[in-house]
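Dissemination and training. As part of the outreach component of the grant, students in the summer workshop were shown how a complex can be specified as a set of sequence lines and then modelled as a single object. The example used during the hands-on session is reproduced here so that future cohorts can follow it. Participants entered these lines:
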Amino acid sequence: MQKQSLQITKYAILFMAFATILFAVAIASAQGPTPTDDEVNQIAKKLYCPVCENVPLDVCPTEACRQWRDQIREMLIEGKTEEEIIDYFAVTYGERAAGDPRNKLEAYLIPVVLIILGTLLLLSALRMWRKPLAAEPTSQKDGAKPVQQDEYIARLEEELKKRK
Amino acid sequence: MTETTPPRRGVPLWVQIIIWLFLAGLLATVALGLSRRQQGTVQPGQVIDNFNLTLYSGYELDGKNEIDLADLRGKVVVINFWASWCKPCEQEATELQQVWTEYEPTGDVVFLGVDYVDTETDARVYLKKFGITFANGPDLATRISQYFRIKGVPETYFIDREGVLRYVQVGPFVNADQIRAQIEPLLK
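and obtained this result:
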């Protein structure tokens, strides 16, 4: 009787050990492998902590940045993608946390459009500026200016004759 | 002597206006940016605009997990900016909690912890370590700290019942009396 109960206990312990191992394996496989430092830094170098301005997260030595890198590691374990992680940081800590602007269309298109518009405006202004100056010699032929100049030359010649 | 007419300039007036407006706008933007950088934190006497703070679960205020500053009119509000990675913040954490427990039963004073550039996991460890129970939440997208133009953490802002900023503490408090000394006049 005692021998039988001992055997049952032995089986129970074996079963418990087996169940624990199975459970641990299930948790580990659900979480995925632990990301390496290189994998974490691959994302970290695209982020900037507001506390240490202009220092990328992968090389920032502060405690705040270390915590952020740990957060990236946790999110990678959870199976988040690089894009999702960067979006999370931009939403939680502000746009400046992300090195690249989130709204790329707005960030890159607007300056290009403004530069093109400015160039066009400048070119049209230059063209308008140059036109009247180029037209001046032809208009002088029958305008009032040559008459004025002739009068001036005539008076000048007259004064010179008087001096002689 | 007859007057000679100056050569005609061809730039139309509307182009000149646009160019001058653009230059004026550019200068104004640069000037505004520079003056904002030199301004320092918001100054006492200024009415603080409304802002919204989402609170960490377990650190709600009257059961609400989201609060508007405007809803706290009529109460003295103490806003403390902190972070779990900030060592000087640890110097005042116990004192802040101590003073909060003294004023909490009166219902006249509200303490708000604004967690600056922090991760929730580390923030929770910090809050637990110092036994903090007053309302706390993350400064999402650093909007609140940008509004207050904080220079670092810790910084504490005392707002009176009318919503006017009365005192700014830059750096940690040395003792609990220092905190009480700022709250008491605002309760009268």
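Residues 63 and 163 of chain A are 95 Å apart (CA to CA). Students were then asked to discuss how this feature might be tested experimentally.
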